[in-house]
What does this fold into?
Amino acid sequence: MDPIRTDFLVIGGGIAGLLFAIKASRLGSVTVLTKAGSNEANTAYAQGGIASVWSVDDSFESHVNDTLRAGDGLCNRPAVEAIVREGPDAVRELISLGTRFTRIDAGGEDEYDLGREGGHSHRRVLHAQDLTGREIMRALGEAAAACSNLQILENHVAVDLLIERPPVSQPICWGAYALSKTTRKVHRVIARATLLATGGAGKVYLYTTNPDIASGDGVAMAYRAGIPIANMEFYQFHPTCLFHPAAKSFLISEALRGEGAILRLPDGTAFMARYHPDAELAPRDVVARAIDSEMKRLGLDCVYLDISHRPASYVRERFPNIYKRCLSYGYDLTERPIPVVPAAHYMCGGVMTDLEGRTTIGRLYAAGETAMTGLHGANRLASNSLLEAAVMARRSFAAARDELSKDSKRPPSFPEWDPGRAARTEERVLITHSWDEIRRLMWNYVGIVRSDRRLERALRRIQLLKEEIHSYYWDHLLDSDLIELRNLVIVAELVVRSALKRKESRGLHYTIDHPSRDDNHWRYDTVIRREDVQPLTGSPA
Ligand code: FAD
Ligand code: SIN
It folds into this structure.
């Protein structure tokens, strides 16, 4: 069917996309695109939980201050205030849609169990044991299935946005081109309002906690459409993933450290107190850098995380998923320390939006990990991501509703997808090799500790790859690997260019050439627009 017509197009079916879609379906028809199965989203993998002020001992001021501290001087305070203060309402909405967070008996009272994680000065993380994301996806998936005018098109990959560019006024988005992975046809999806909720880009690094869908498609589509992209140098590495060749960077939740787990060297020495007064509960950037530094200092493959001093029954009940997964690799975390290493985890930068999720293009909104609201600054506080995604999905929906109620413009006609001279891909090795090369060079040159020299070398190589991919892209029939590769190389370039711009160390960006934070010169967001980037030769993808 081409074109598909819908009132709201939602690109992405994680927490941000589904929450927006469920609300929008009360107003009009909604089409949600997910590029794989419904559960392949970062949301489904979330373990620790969602941070929100919940207990009477806690306060908004405290959550705001913890967020600002973790963000290392770069958070946008109004964003922090707004998102933290709306957190409890967003959590209540998730609960009303069916999410069952873990409850405990607290002195005869049945209450939500509040977890603790690094950088938080209070217990404020609602969770569903250690499978919070899976529970949120279950609840939102069921709620979405009950909405009569909401359709989810699985295995549909958005390729590019449909943009009208009137000569004098602001450009307007009218949906997107989307490839069906089943029929291999590209459709126009024409919508009155579009939400980008495509999640993160962990796949740009060789080792990541993210599932395969996380290739930064939303950032790349927005960048190609001319929207400013900000703070991409702040890629967060999670300190603790299971170190095992078959475990694919399986996350060991920060909630373990919240419940007393200790990081140790192979001889059993605890080392975090040497790096930060909060030791294991220091902000994530500090912990990841400390582990990296110990591994380099001693030539280690990994360090160890030890929760064996807590009662075995408690560990099994609080962390059933982590316990079982570790056991399947031969590690019983109730008995001895388990081997851990850092891996790429979360994109703090992204598509710049205002506090209503609006981008610089009319009728186009962005929410969740793909967006940059200013909440996280230079480093995200643990469990603030699900919070931001839920709050911003609600705010984006309200803004889209108001915008549509004010005008009744009609979309112009957009041409059918033109495959041009494209032929079927014969040499897949060109795609697989480029994927591998990008991920490896990002890991080796643009990781936890950076230098100008390594970043410059990475940029040269990425520019060449981008040109190769650009010419290959237009010569071959589209498939999802090719779409993702074209996006991934843009994300890599944005991370490297942003990192090269920032001549200081702050939050997640640490460079040996400028090792101190410099508030006099660098206390602002790193913003990159497509028109500022000079191609090496011809025109880049
Ligand atoms: P996602 O949930 O990633 O959803 C993205 C959606 O976009 C998917 O449906 C995907 O198919 C779709 N998509 C992408 N590109 C396209 C395209 N081109 N066309 C069509 N569809 C597309 N955060 C917390 O706050 N607390 C935690 O405890 C926590 N734990 C985590 C544990 C792990 C292992 C990971 C990986 C992340 C964790 N995070 C956590 C981060 C958090 O889960 C994510 O940031 C958040 O879920 C992102 O939600 P989202 O809706 O923005 O995107
Ligand atoms: C975790 O459970 O450690 C992940 C929390 C997060 O990414 O916020």
User: Anything to note?
Assistant: The domain at 429-532 is CATH 1.20.58.100 (Methane Monooxygenase Hydroxylase; Chain G, domain 1). The first helix runs from residue 15 to 24.
